[in-house]
Automatic annotation (TrEMBL):
Keywords: DNA-binding, Transcription, Transcription regulation. Belongs to the LysR transcriptional regulatory family. One of its GO terms (cellular component) is cytosol. Residues 1-58 form the HTH lysR-type domain. This is LysR family transcriptional regulator. GO terms for molecular function: DNA binding; DNA-binding transcription factor activity. It holds the Pfam family HTH_1.
Amino acid sequence: MDIKQLIYLCNLERERHFGRAAEASFVSQPTLSMRLKNLERELGLSLINRSNNFDGFTAEGERVLAWAREIVSVYQGLKLEVESLKHGVNGTLRIGVVPQCGVSLPLLLKMVSDRYPQLDYRVAVLSADQLLEALTSHTVDVGIGFFELATLRELHFQAESLTDNGVELVYHPAHFPQLEEIDRLRIEDIATLPLCLAEPTRYFRRYLDASFREAGITQRVILESTSIFQLLQGVQVGLGCLIAPVGHLLPAMNPDLHYRPLAIAPMARHAAVVIAEPGRATPLSQHFFDEVRRILSES
């Protein structure tokens, strides 16, 4: 058994396809298949369900895969540690982020980059549940999203909470001038407004839906999308209004839009920046986390 075989196994889990896993591993498909079959022979276990195509892992394969993730994560952490010792903090940090989590991620990354200019970022947009799974399986180094703090403690993650600054309504005053006359917006004040909202699978959208139900209001969602860019365009042309966590958007990017606080009950989950426990976090993620903690403490 060698580390490459375990990397191939992890790549197969991520890609769910032999050809794509081979491409991700920078080998031919026959080479990848042969190395994985050699691993099975050495372990004396069938790890992969094979038909004409990849058909998932066996129960034994899932157990081995869990160990493979751990070993590959430690191996990659070792490589990054060596690189940081030789060249300082540099490399690519894998970040999983939940949309509308109360912080402008590019702004945060810019502040970290001022300290670590050689650090690069690869960002994946995930649901809250997908993000926790990605952190657990080490497919992302950093998670930024909504979490139950008790769960994070049980799993021994390091977490830095993001300040909950509430929720705001984003609208174009030329299309919704009536909103300018209301001193303090309540959920009842926007009951009849057309809304541009994220899809229902997102945690923030589920939180909004629950808030409307508790108020006895059926909201009108005129535009629903996974893309914040599409939602903002809908607001810009007057198609509807957007509800977002305060701090998620950069007002300077949309100077024509107005941002008004909306009185609404706080979320049950907490927004946080999360990495693995000390000693198991990669060097890059630990440097990133420590710098984010410093930035948040000074803001």
